[in-house]
Recover the amino acids of this structure.
């Protein structure tokens, strides 16, 4: 059985039916399939008009999915890598700022659960949270709270 070649519009709709894409990411993904007569910019504009493609919806979905595991710096860096910029990025940053401590504490509890016993362990825990994109201020507060909670036992 012969497979029909997908049109650029059908391919874009198929991608968007699987998950949300940022406009820049979808454009990069469709670029290799654009034939000489295809107008990729017009297709992206059509998708935006019809509500199939939304940078705001992509940012909300991405932040919701990644924020439970990663800190602000990492999530924002990944959004920039996906081609998000401007007001959508600043809105995501404001949304993430409020919950960074709670998210860092949750990630720390899941991974470690007990306060560091010595400076080497404290440095290891600090590096882990730092690699996840949490700020130094938040990490210090998480580790300080861990020390106090262990003292109360």
């Amino acid at each position: 059985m012969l497979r029909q070649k997908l049109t650029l519009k059908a391919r874009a709709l198929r991608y968007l039916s699987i998950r949300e894409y940022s406009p820049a990411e979808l454009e990069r993904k469709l670029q290799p399939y654009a034939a000489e007569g295809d107008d990729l910019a017009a297709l992206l504009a059509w998708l935006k008009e019809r509500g199939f493609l939304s940078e705001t919806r992509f940012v909300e979905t991405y932040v919701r999915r990644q924020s439970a595991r990663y800190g602000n710096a990492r999530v924002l860096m990944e959004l920039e890598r996906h081609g998000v910029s401007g007001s959508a990025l600043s809105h995501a940053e404001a949304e993430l700022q409020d919950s960074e401590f709670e998210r860092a504490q949750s990630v720390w509890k899941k991974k470690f659960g007990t306060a560091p016993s010595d400076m080497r362990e404290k440095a290891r825990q600090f590096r882990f949270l730092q690699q996840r994109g949490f700020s130094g201020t938040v990490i210090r507060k998480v580790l300080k709270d861990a020390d106090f909670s262990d003292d109360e036992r």
